[in-house]
Structure formats: C-alpha cells, structure tokens
Amino acid sequence: MRLRPVAAIILAVLLSACGRDAVRPEVPPSGPGRDGAPIGNVDVSQLPEPVPRAEPRARYGNHTPYTVLGRTYHVMDSAAGYRERGIASWYGTKFHGKLTSTREPYDMLAFTAAHKTLPLPTYVRVTNLDNGERLIVRVNDRGPFHAGRIIDLSYAAAIRLGIAAKGTGNVEVEAIDPDHPDAVAAGATEPRPQMATQGPVYVQAGSFASRDNAVRLRERLEAAGFDDLYLDRVLMRGELFHRVRLGPFDSVDAAEALIQRLAAIGIRAVSTQVE
C-alpha cells in the first residue's frame, strides 16, 4: 500500500519524535543549589559524536584573565598539545537550557563539556581510564570550579563514558587538531578495556612559580599532620612551576577524601592527577 504524500510526512514526523524521546526524557526543574539527572532512562547510543572542525574563537567566554571564587585563571592562547589526566565530573538539570560561557544554551543531552582554561570552543577526546571508553566532546563552557576536577562533562557524555552513576571518573583529556582529528599525541593513552589500575593517583595541593612558596606550603602541610608530601617541577607553556603533591593513593575515592581534608584547612587550589 502506498502512502499519500501528507500521510507519509505525518508518519515521518511521528517516527522522528519517537527517536527524540528515546534520548530526551523529561528534564525537571532543579531545586535551589541542586543538580541532578533527568527523569527516566537516557539512551545515548544514537547521539552523534561531534565532528571536530576549525571554528573561530567564541566572542564570549575567552576573556583572560578571569576570577572565580577568589582564584584567577588564564585562558590558553592555543589548545595545541594539551593533554592532562585527572578527575572528570558532570553537570545536568540545574544548568539545562541556561547559557554557557559562549552564550550557547547548555544541552545536557549533547556531547559537550566545560573546562577552566582551554580556548572556547575546543574539541577534546576524553578517555575513561578505568574502562577504556573514549568520546569526542565540544568544550563550550567554563568550569568545573570544584577542587580537584579538570573537566565537567555534559550528562550525556558522562553516561557514554560510564561515569554518570558514580558522579566522577578518572580520565585523560586530549585536545584535537581539527585538521588531524585522528592523531594521537606522543605518550597519549590508548584505551584498554577493563583496566584494573592506571597508575597511582596524586593530589596536587599547589603549583608555584616560586620554589620558596612551594616549600612554605609543604611545611604548612607537614605541620598540619599531612605526610607523603613531595615537591616536583614541571614545565608548562614555557614556564617552570614547582608543585606540592601528596600520594600516591590507590583510588580516586581516597584522593577525593584528602581533597576534602585540605579544603577544611583553607586549601582550595588542589587538583587530582594520575601519573
């Protein structure tokens, strides 16, 4: 039986709507200060992965330096060569539909992310170091400003990578060159399914251009009863920094617990990294 043109159009619209409902459940309003997941199951298997492409810097969201919660951040001149390991978190209903730093509406059911210093927009490849899952996301927002996190994923991205249920995950984030999207930076992690361990976890309590400042922080932490402290040096964007770190820890949860202890004595500028 052949469908009349109008009937065919109606059927196509209905089928399209069904497909959208599979990945777009009800997003309830969040209470004051609360964030969470949408109502119902979210199927992200049919969501398209972003295709990296060259984009001009966004008009908004790239002002540098900028200050949030008393800490100043400097936006990178370029994302080229950026690769970092650390803790990812996700954000959801509280911000759904609100404007991102680029003035685009945040869609918790799209593959996007927030980062503190990458140019906006930037495409990055995120690898879950615990299960080997990989996903390309488009960074179009600023954050996360919670101690110890290096990237804030959309809810859909967190589901795809397998960290939504736990809330945080151990990841590697690598900037993508739109002209060579399949290139892997030297030393980048190749995903390996069901990795039991991916190296010890460390907590960074501070990073300073001055070694004297780093030594003073180490001494303060020693006096407060913290141990397993050490200093190291790292070259970042042509500048030498002295880092104060604690560890290693066997799990992300143990590192997170230490981050909370540090926050209790007024040390907020901490980040968790895996080496």
Verbal overview:
The protein contains four helices and twelve strands. Among the domains are: 66-175, Barwin-like endoglucanases; 201-274, Alpha-Beta Plaits. Helix content is 19%, strand content 28%. A six-stranded mixed beta barrel has the order 3-7-4-6-5-8. A four-stranded antiparallel beta sheet has the order 10-11-9-12. It has helices at residues 5-23, 155-161, 211-223, 252-264; strands spanning 66-68, 71-73, 83-91, 112-114, 122-128, 134-141, 151-154, 168-175, 201-208, 229-236, 239-249, 271-274. With 275 residues, the chain is an alpha+beta fold. The N and C termini lie far apart (63 Å). It is globular, with a radius of gyration of 21 Å.
Protein traits:
275 residues, alpha+beta, Alpha-Beta Plaits, 4 helices
Mean pLDDT: 79
Range of helix content: 10-25%
| CATH homologous superfamily identity of the domain at 66-175 | RlpA-like domain
Backbone structural class: alpha+beta
Radius of gyration: 21 Å
Strands ordered across the widest β-sheet: 3-7-4-6-5-8
Taking pLDDT < 50 over at least 5 consecutive residues as the criterion, the unreliable ranges are 5-22, 185-198
Query: Can you name the CATH architecture of the domain at 66-175?
Result: Beta Barrel
Q: Largest beta sheet, briefly?
A: 6 strands, mixed, barrel
- Strand segment tally: 12
Number of helices: 4
User: What fraction of the residues are assigned to beta strands by DSSP?
Assistant: 25-35%
Distance between the termini: 63 Å
Reported by name, the CATH topology of the domain at 66-175 is Barwin-like endoglucanases
Shape: globular
SSE pattern, N- to C-terminal:
HEEEEEEEHEEHEEHE
CATH class of the domain at 66-175: Mainly Beta
